[in-house]
Structures
1.
Amino acid sequence: PRSKRAADFDHAVAEFFMRIALEEAAKGLGRTSPNPVVGAVLVKGGRIIARGHHKKAGTAHAEVVALEAAGSKARGADLYTTLEPCDHYGRTPPCSLAVLEAGVRRVFSASSDPNPLVSGKGLNRLKRGGVAVVTHVLKDEADALNRPFFKMMRTGLPWVTLKAAVTLDGKIAAPSGDSKWVTGEASRAWVHRLRDQVDAILVGANTVRMDDPQLTTRLPGGGGKDPVRVVVDSHLKLSPGHTVFTQRSPARTVIATLEDPEGRRARRFLAQGVEVWNVRAKQDRVDLKAVLKRVKKEGLNHVLVEGGAGLYGTLLREHLADALALFVAPKLVGAGGLSWAGELGVKDMAHALAVKDLTMEKVGDDVLLRALL
Ligand code: AOF
Ligand code: ZN
């Protein structure tokens, strides 16, 4: 018989299994937008009998992946899920019903779902069905995995991470403009893991002109996923011959501009398979908020900004950036080098832009600083 009482449970045990569910969820990073990453683990007699994660929007939810893997063994098991189970008929039937049907004894969940179709409803149905429910196990860790999904739900804008490789004096290029390479190999490998986990990369026209980057994901063992590449070029001055436009990728490549997408210059990009987004102007430049809205509309929740200083500066000034990943190399280039953050309009320390939750870790000979804005 199912217990109607709140479960008697051991916090350390619950966190142990939830951590494994979080590892499952993380496998979906960069692959599930506009949906969240979700992981699930089924435990019976102290052992994991099945696990699963959400692989792609529109496919089975993590809970159902784990339940299907367990089959009839799920009866009497505990379900650990990193997001509260849904209760709606969307592209798949409600997980709450599948959980009841399978005869799961207890459900442990981490994040609350901001989706109005879901919020609280699945958990309530489970409680009414006699399943013991424990919420908010490792909630902070789970919330951190789905920041892009949560922000998109709350604001209609994607989560924006600024990534830059800088010298110890905060420069992204030497006085000559040269920027290859600021950071070491370990940092550059890290960037490919970041690209694998985001939905889109955003760069300015100057970065394409100066660095001619590929902006694809190259992981040592292969298996990476390319993000959608979005180049901001207000007046469509770039040559379509740049690597980012000619290098094939399974992902889309986009140029965001003020120019007419039917015009001669735009047509050269279109002919190469590059999409042209005509975006509203702000002070004679592409309005970056409009670009981000379009990115969200395309179902992309997480954008990685890879330069240059102009783009970083505008995003910071307009409060459009959410997180910072700064790879700092142990070298100096001095005055004349290009500072990464661009013009912020700050006049005195009292008005300096402050970041939150600063953390650091060593990556090869470099230091990775991460913070929220
Ligand atoms: C997922 N995967 O593992 C869980 C989700 O697009 P639908 O119809 O599949 O519904 C998506 C919503 O379902 C999503 O926004 C979230 O609120 C909830 N849970 N979604 O894609 C999952 N558990
Ligand atoms: Zn579901």
Note: The CA atoms of residues 86 and 137 lie 17 Å apart.
2.
Amino acid sequence: MQIDIVTIFPDFFRGPLEHGIIRRACEAGIVTIAVDDLREFTSDRHRTVDDRPFGGGQGMVLKPQPVFECVEALELRPREERARAKQAVVLLSPQGHKFDQSVAAELAMVERLVLICGRYEGVDERVGMFLADREISIGDYVLSGGELAAAVIADAVIRLLPGAVGNEASTRQESFFAGRDAAPGRGPSSTCGSGGLLDYPHYTRPADFRGMRVPEVLVSGNHQDIRRWRRRSALAKTLRNRPDLLDGIELSEEDRRLLAENADPAAAE
Ligand code: SAM
């Protein structure tokens, strides 16, 4: 995969994408990340990328010309052919569709991904209408610029690329993963994979830290009990923190029993 990040602050990315899994994925050639400076596509002495809004109002607007020219210089396929060519141009915007794990999985299938970072009051609307394939928001809050959002998306996408995470199974056992285990009509198989739920709680040594003990079942060596406990804990945490996720997945018979046990621990006995 090649990722291009279009920004007026190329130095911003010196830190966030140069550590851990992302750095190793770059070194292994799994992904190439290029940061494209919008100011290279200006022609005036001050390298101006913004201008006043038509109709008046607060702040400045990122001009269309440098954004169009920068993306055109990347020589992608015409917009109508991009999906088939496994290319995607994304405009970061609080007005976009909400980013989540399924969007990350979708973007992980493309071969070329362009992330356009807005600034100021936003980007001239023609960029979203005629240049980008989609607008994506990372959440219902307003950031000062699209750079943090681009870093979030790049991170979430890259860790899904084959070979990026040492133990690939671990990306299938994380929160939100709704892969084969949660196929419609089948429901999650109640394995340790999240099946669209939040992840189960993790513990490591020591078993007793300042009097706080790990749950006995995890040191019991009984794998069936551990699997059930993890699934029950994932269901409980999802119900507590993100009940909306439960609406989107099909629960197995065992899941329903485990949920009932959460509501009434006596039912577990
Ligand atoms: N005036 C815009 C509005 O109210 O919707 C906010 C513009 S914001 C200050 C500047 C830039 O930050 C946006 O163009 C976008 O690229 C980026 N940005 C801000 N919040 C974002 C979010 N939640 N998700 C993705 N990008 C965001």
Note: Confidence is low (pLDDT under 50) at residues 180-192.
